[in-house]
Amino acid sequence: MIFIILVSIVATIGGFLFGFDSGVINGTVNGLQKAFNSDDIGTGFNVASMLLGCAIGAFTAGRLADVYGRKTLLLVTAVLFIVSAWGSGIAGSSMEFIVYRVIGGLAVGAASVMAPAYISEIAPARLRGRLSSIQQVAIISGLFAAFVSNYLLANLAGASTADFWLGFAAWRWMFWIELFPAVLFLVFLLFIPESPRYLVLRKKDHQASDVLNRLYGEEQGQKKLLEIQQSLAGDRHEPKLADLFDKQSRKVRKIVWIGIGLAVFQQLVGINVVFYYGAVLWQAVGFSESDALLINIISGAVSIAACVITMYFIDKVGRKPFLLLGSLGMTVTLSCLVFAFMNSDLDIHGNLDLGDMGTFALISANAYVFFFNLSWGPVMWVMLGEMFPNQIRGSGLAVAGLFQWGANFAITMTFPIMLTGIGLGGAYAFYAVFAALSVFFVAKYIYETKGRELEDMQG
To answer: Which pLDDT tens digit goes with each residue over 135-161?
Structure first.
């Protein structure tokens, strides 16, 4: 069991890098605007460009992992993280920066689907939810580390745009800090085994047997090997995208649409606006850059606390109750934010001034972050990693990951435009509507997967 936990922790370093790479941009927006002289749309694309890579990375990783293996794809993501971290900091033009961010996006997208899939495929059913939830704890820890790093570097330099070590601006060092965990990820991955379920799919039963024996012991390992083989009996062909279609009706399987729904709703509630644009958001309502970065740190700490609660209870309570609670909580807290933004005044420069609403907005925003990370943050990744049958897990994750990052790109790209067009109140009203719709989606379409073996998942 200790070996399974250690292997899961190594896999979730990819989640940490996913979070760090996503959150580091938060403190660099001012630096990017100054260095590349970009307008709102240009800034939006500099921030959102990574997400194009994420969509491609998630889709291709799911498919390539069925051919080359889960471990191999995780190794590739580690190399891409290293290249992106260095290149994003050294970029001398907007186009060069975008190229390196897209490379980082490929890594983030691949890690986002491969880490939960890998953990689901090595973990016993009774602990699968808890171990898979570590992925979200790692993601939020990465975000938190990025926020702390951004805050410290900006304060040491005087501002994110000020020169720091070796004459480079602080915002460039914000990207380079990521090199340390990225290199560690690459080294540790060399010592973990390949997914046994992937090995059985590739008809490498002897290697799968060795891995299962290491994970569960010889008796349980051989029993699990037989269960995996039986689940694929009579249909043990090489996985392909066509498996996502029902053979009789020739329509996309219902489980695929549910996976897409989970992936898209997780983004349409607007959570990554807080993570990517948190500093910009709070500066827009009157906070200084230093205070805005400090607020991000508080949000990160709240997120970690919520994820730890979910990690402890998810295998006892189940997945669906957490999703319902999160959807209801986000609907209420987002509506509170809309109320705060709609009932605030403008200062002499035309910027929103929260005034007496400031404390209420901060509490509502952190409550919103709490409910998201109690539910949709970790549970969506847990379910995507476990809900698909063995034969279509790679392909199902590829499609769901593509839609998840596509929705993320759309939300991130449109926020600066919405901010200047309909204001913060209008933008958050949009997210609140989708939070409310997610309540009905979960109630009608999500089924419980707590305690079920992966071999029992129906497609």
So the answer is: 878 888 888 888 888 888 888 877 766
- Tell me what pLDDT residue 47 has: 64
Angle at 411 between CA 338 and CA 162, to 5 degrees: 90
**DSSP assignments along 378-425, one per residue:** HHHHHHHHHSS-GGGHHHHHHHHHHHHHHHHHHHHHHHHHHHHHTHHH
Give dist(CA 93, CA 35) in Å, integer.
8
Query: Residues with Cβ < 8 Å from 362, sequence gap 6 or more?
Result: 295
Q: Which two tokens stand for residue 229?
A: 């083989």
Domain locations along the chain: 2-456
Query: For 398-426, how does the pLDDT look when each residue is reduced to its tens digit (9 = 90+)?
Result: 888 889 888 887 887 787 788 777 777 88
**Looking at domain 2-456, does it have CATH number 1.20.1250.20?**
yes
Query: How far is the C-alpha of 26 from the C-alpha of 226, rounded, in Å?
Result: 48
The answer to pTM > 0.90 is no
Is 17:81 a contact under the CB 8 Å cutoff?
yes
What is the enclosing helix (H) or strand (E) of 371?
helix 358-374
Six token digits for residue 399: 């499609």
pLDDT of res. 329:
96
Cα–Cα distance measured from residue 49 to residue 309, given in angstroms and rounded to the nearest whole number: 33
Residue 36: both structure tokens together: 């590349």
